[in-house]
Write a structure and sequence with these properties.
CATH superfamily of the largest domain: Regulatory protein AraC
Largest sheet: 5 strands, antiparallel
Strand order of the largest sheet: 1-8-3-6-9
CATH architecture of the largest domain: Sandwich
Number of helices: 12
Protein name: AraC family transcriptional regulator
Structural class: alpha+beta
Distance between the termini: 40 Å
Shape: globular
CATH topology of the largest domain: Jelly Rolls
Pfam families: HTH_18
Organism: Actinomadura harenae
Order of helices and strands: HEEEEEEEEEHHHHHHHHHHH
GO molecular function: DNA-binding transcription factor activity; sequence-specific DNA binding
InterPro entries: AraC_XylS_family_regulators, Homeodomain-like_sf, HTH_AraC, RmlC_Cupin_sf
Helix content: 40-55%
Amino acid sequence: MDDQGGRARWVSSLTWEFADAGDVGLSGGAWREMPAGTSRVTFVRRGLLRVRGEGTTDLAAGDLVCFPTGVRHELHALTDVDLLSVGLVRDGNDAGLPSRILLTDLARNEPLVEVLFGELLKGAREFRTDVLRHSATLLASLVVSSWLERGCAPDRWLMRVEDAGVARAVAAIHDDPGRAWSVADLARVALLSRSEFAVRFRRAAGETPVRYVTAVRIERARRLLRDGGLGTEQIARQLGYGSSAAFSRAFTRAVGTSPARWRDGRRIDSGSSTAPTTARDAASA
């Protein structure tokens, strides 16, 4: 991508201190408050979890949620769940960081995440401050990098810092991904000429506006499919596709499987996880 170096430099400049870590087990129907202050990273090892804070989202095994700026949130177990939870303290200010990062299927795409959680749990037991600081920064960097690479950042903080016009266009896309956005439409939102906008958008995002709109639609489709409240035809209309067949083709190109099969696979994955290990509460809970 055109801005890959800029992203890498930004991510590498973020350092974090370790606060706490632990296994968390919750029985179905139980819930836990995560107070404001500490940046919290929660990884679902088994079961279905509802997270309330900056919106409501349901997570399955392999999913991760992070609150980089330390927003208060709640964890509600829809089934018996096993979680890995790490508290971090940002070494510096929170300028530009999102209030919440959601990453689905992270374990499949980034196997290193479970290794890093393991290192943090082990380091906490052995009081190894060098391991804790290093692993904490690596984990946070992996989460932020994955968020950027997926193109699902709600306000694209790199763009907001570097190009206010492009940021306005990106925000408009996320606010209404189902609109039939043209490059000319987005250029007007950005208060730029069509040609200048196309060049500046590609420089900021590393891809064309049309491809970015598609990526946002597919990410939104994943969420809607996981929520289970809408059928594929309704999702297709909501996201601006002329038919469920057109939506299915776009989704299959991006994800590698049809919307129906992807949703069925999520259900199977969440229902066939391995048995829980003995859980203990996170230190800060």
